[in-house]
Structure formats: C-alpha cells, structure tokens
Amino acid sequence: MPYEHTSTRRIEFSETDMAGLVHFSNFFKYMETAERDFFEAAGVDLIRTKPGELVGWPRARAECKFSAPLRFGDTIDIHLAVKAVKDRAIDFQFRIFRRNADGSRTQAGKGHMTTIFAQLNETGALQSVELPADLRECITEAPAEVLAKPSR
Hints:
The protein is an alpha+beta fold. Helices cover 18% and strands 41% of the residues.
C-alpha cells in the first residue's frame, strides 16, 4: 500500500513575483499537486461523483515553513508522505526540494496538510464521513524513518 509519492515539476513564470521569487501561496498549490498525483498513483479518485452525491477532501489545516527561495525555471521535487490515516481524515507531510545544477537538492519548504473526507448532505452543507474500506486498503501511514528523513 502506498504511503509516499514524489512529484516533479518546473517553476512557471506566472508563479513568481516582481523579485523573481515564487510567491509563498504557490507552495500550497505544489502540495496539492503532490496530493493529486499520490491519489492517482494509488488508484483513488480524489473527487468521487455519483448522481446526487459529491464527495471530496476539504482542507482542515495547511501550513508551510519556507527555508530557501524558488525561482522561475527551477525544477522541484515535492515529496508527500502520509503522516496519519484517521477515521475521517488524512494528515500529509510535504517536503519541497529545489534540484541544483550539481545534482544535489536544497530543501525549500516543509509543510503539513490535514484533509477531511466529506460529502454534501441534503441541505448542501459539507459533512465529514468515515473513510471507506476501499480507500483504507489503498493508503497507509508512512514508517517513522520516512517522516524523519529530510533529504528524501
């Protein structure tokens, strides 16, 4: 069962500010990119839709600590690890690395996100629901050494 995933992408010009640095808000988009790729690799629909039903993953918490700048053209790796699988939520840990010309990597950010499994109820409000068994079979928590390793 998967518990980690790494997505790779290049920084686009539109993600930068007047100083040529990636705007901080884009780090959250990078985390969501890795989350989408993780679910896809695990064979899980990120959004489940059936007639009259919508199930998705609203965020309960998201945070990021920045440690190095990213610039237009940089190639980054976004490492996702499943920190905890709860009854109605999943906690993810993210590490964002810039690939350097010499082949090394520099950690540019570290983040966490808690997503709640929710559906729209009859009144149109979001309501948390328990993670279904098929989802629990596809995703597991990462071992402690994966969560502790900063250079993955």
